[in-house]
């Protein structure tokens, strides 16, 4: 799956534009995504572990290797206040 995703630096995410549609349409995948986000948050806060986030902006699929610092009901927040909308995330690991 990683072949179709382009690696991006966390600092470049702030300049991206995100559509309002969800990249996932399966309810089970959406539930799994929320579980994965919560796990990534725990790993980030307790162990400062980096995870890979697979997501899509308005141009292409991207991947970032980073630490999740916080989560709101709509966004995953990375270091320096960089945010990725949850509805644009495919998976995390």
Question: Can you put this structure into words, describing what you see?
Answer:
- With 93 residues, the chain is of the alpha+beta class.
- The protein has one helix spanning 27-47, and strands at residues 6-7, 51-56, 61-66, 68-71, 75-78, 83-85, 89-92.
- A four-stranded mixed beta sheet has the order 1-3-2-7. A three-stranded antiparallel beta sheet has the order 4-5-6.
- A hairpin with a 3-residue loop joins β4 and β5 (75-78).
Q: Helical proportion? A: 10-25%
Unreliable stretches covering 5 or more consecutive residues: none
Q: What does the average pLDDT come to?
A: 94
**Radius of gyration, rounded?**
12 Å
Distance between the termini: 13 Å
Number of strands: 7
Biggest sheet strand line-up:
1-3-2-7
**N-to-C series of helices and strands:** EHEEEEEE
Strand content: 25-35%
Largest sheet: 4 strands, mixed
Structural class: alpha+beta
What are the SSEs and their pairings?
Blueprint: E1 6-7, H1 27-47, E2 51-56, E3 61-66, E4 68-71, E5 75-78, E6 83-85, E7 89-92
Parallel strand pairs: 1-3
Antiparallel strand pairs: 2-3, 2-7, 4-5, 5-6
How would you sum up this structure in a few lines?
This protein has 93 residues and is of the alpha+beta class.
